[in-house]
Amino acid sequence: MSRWLVIFLVVVGQQAAAQTDSGALYAQASGATFCSGTLPVLHIDTADSIKSKEEYVDGTYYLDNMGQWQFESIGSASEPLPVQIRGRGNWTWTGAFAKKPYKIKLGQKQPLMGMASNKHWALLAHADGTRPFFRNAAGFFLSRRVLKGFTPSQQPVELILNGKYQGLYFLTETIRVGKNRVNITEQADNETDPELISGGWLVELDNGIDEQQLRFSTRGTDLGYFLVTYSSPEELSLAQRSYLRQQMQRVLDTVYCDDKSSTDWEQIIDMPTLASFYLVNEVIDNVEAFLGSCYLHKDRGQEKWLFGPVWDMGHAFSSTHPKDEYCYIYDNGWSPGIINEIVKFPRFQEEVRRQWPQFYPGLVGELKKYLIIYAQRIKRAAQLDALRWHYAADIDQQLSDCLLSLDVKCRFLQQQFQQPVSSIGAIATTEATGRDAVYSLSGQRLQQPPRRGLYIRNNRIYK
What we know:
Blueprint: H1 3-18, H2 20-30, E1 41-46, E2 57-64, E3 81-87, H3 91-94, E4 102-110, E5 118-124, H4 132-146, E6 154-161, E7 164-173, E8 201-206, E9 213-215, E10 227-232, H5 238-255, H6 271-283, E11 294-298, E12 306-307, H7 339-342, H8 346-389, H9 395-417, E13 438-439, E14 445-446, E15 455-457, E16 460-462
Parallel strand pairs: 1-6
Antiparallel strand pairs: 1-2, 2-3, 3-4, 4-5, 5-7, 6-7, 8-10, 8-11, 9-10, 11-12, 13-14, 13-15, 15-16
């Protein structure tokens, strides 16, 4: 492992400790319950309470970089900027979570936290424990390296809403058509010109009922439902509705055919992109990958639909799903997804095997190193988030669980895809060498813990 990574992690840890006192002073001055001082802080004040995910509430915001030099402060307490905010999400909004996710719309485009300038952002709460803090981070990391086009970026922040500390949030680029997002032709609502309705399209294979949705008969398939929610355009003419219905029906008809040597489905779905999309979700064991929040897009004049961008890895690193099983085989009462049928095509299997070596061991090793740095960066804020929302948190253990999940899953996939067995090259497990084995962050076994720096023992990170 490179020396810069170890140095960086040590510096991050020292900064977090040094800034604890300054964070407490900052919290007292701002009227917040507490604040870590290790992450930028987003302040939002609203005229009314946020009660729904349909109606925006007017407010103001400013972003304080809290001395994090790599990020730019935007606005200030004395000169805040206009914003609108509402709730967002399905189960994350309606479920029994006190910590809620939000959608924000800035008064004008801003490049928040170094991400591409835009008006539209999500503040994701990841309220169900600390392991969810790693799920999108892992999926976005892999996607950005293997999928062409847009993959959402996210940055951790602490949120103070109407003067009250809300904990650790993840400022995230939303999925929408635009130059800095899904860069396809933006098709007009209610378009009727036959030459223009081939694209662009941004749709979602969904698992919830939505007004902007087409619903299909699943007779002759093992699907419990096939729901297609259209995101762009948002309002469909009869011509657009007919076009989209014909396209999605063709997907169903060509995938659910008896002849698995057929390549008809490859004429409407871009198969190499789908294989990459599948592997991103398979590696992190995202069991809901093809059941909901599963986006497809198609540009004008383009014949094939592309899977992506990735979104909502909320069931990745599942603690209940066996890691010696494919992600789409999950006995949880859910309906099978379309991927359950696609994997039966030998040509898709061959494409997955062809792409697998780029994931393992190299890319998975890079992902592990990234997650270690990321965990140190959010650690203090995650601890305060747990205090704010009254749950037990051990982010080091959660990180270790995610790393172990990657190990076990990738070794299973390596056996299934019949590639030469190789070390992951990042974090070694202790399953074959004893519970007290000590490793560097690069996976090298050590005789004893180092005097300085970070190391791993019993799948835990120590300093």
